[in-house]
Design brief:
Layout: E1 17-23, H1 33-48, E2 52-54, E3 61-69, E4 73-79, E5 85-91, H2 93-115, H3 118-143, E6 147-149, H4 151-165
Parallel strand pairs: 1-3
Antiparallel strand pairs: 2-6, 3-4, 4-5
Helix pairs in contact: 1-4, 2-3, 3-4
Length: about 170
C-alpha cells in the first residue's frame, strides 16, 4: 500500500494506489450471484496490485467510485487524501466489440478445458490474452492525458468493466 504523501502540492510524478473501489449502485445495478461474485473478485484483484498516476491529484492512497454515465461512458471518480477529485472517463462504445469477442473466446476456452486437446487450449488462451492486452491498451489510451496507469492495472480494470457489463 502506498504511504500518504507529506507534500502539500499536487504531485504528478509519483504514482498512487487505489485502496478502495466502490461500484455506484444507482448506475450499476446488482446482478445475479455469479456475476456479483465476478465483480467482487475483479475488484479484489485490482485493489491487490495497482498503480495510478492522476494529473492534478496528490500521490498516495486513492478512493475510486465507478459509475456508468448516461452517455455509455464509464466514470472512474478518483479522490485523493486531501479531497482532490478527478473523473476519468472511458467511452464504453470503444470497448463493446472487444468485450464481446473476449467473452466468446473465454467461453470457448473454458469449454476447451473440459475436452479439447492441449493445442486448442493454448491457441484459445493466446487469443484470450491478446484481447485482454488490446483492451488494456485501449483503456490506457482513453485515460491519457489525464492519468497514467500501468499495464496490469489496465488489465484489471478491463476485467472489472467486463464483469460490470455482464448481464447473464
Amino acid at each position: 500500500m502506498a504511504h500518504p504523501t507529506d507534500k502539500s502540492q499536487k504531485d504528478d510524478q509519483a504514482a498512487g494506489q487505489v485502496v478502495s473501489l466502490i461500484l455506484d449502485e444507482a448506475t450499476i445495478p446488482r446482478q445475479r450471484a455469479p456475476i456479483e461474485q465476478e465483480r467482487r473478485i475483479a475488484i479484489a484483484n485490482l485493489l491487490e496490485c495497482n498503480s495510478l498516476r492522476v494529473k492534478g491529484l496528490c500521490s498516495g492512497s486513492y478512493v475510486a467510485v465507478v459509475t456508468i454515465e448516461a452517455s455509455d461512458t464509464l466514470g472512474l471518480h478518483v479522490r485523493d487524501e486531501q479531497g482532490g477529485h478527478v473523473c476519468l472517463s472511458l467511452p464504453l462504445g470503444r470497448l463493446a466489440a472487444l468485450i464481446k469477442d473476449y467473452r466468446i473466446v473465454c467461453e470457448n476456452y473454458y469449454q476447451a478445458m473440459v475436452d479439447a486437446p492441449p493445442s486448442t487450449i493454448e491457441t484459445l488462451d493466446e487469443a484470450r490474452r491478446a484481447l485482454h492486452d488490446d483492451g488494456a491498451q485501449m483503456i490506457c489510451n482513453a485515460f491519457t492525458p489525464t492519468a497514467d496507469l500501468d499495464h496490469e492495472t489496465a488489465r484489471g480494470l478491463l476485467t472489472l468493466v467486463t464483469a460490470i457489463l455482464s448481464r447473464s
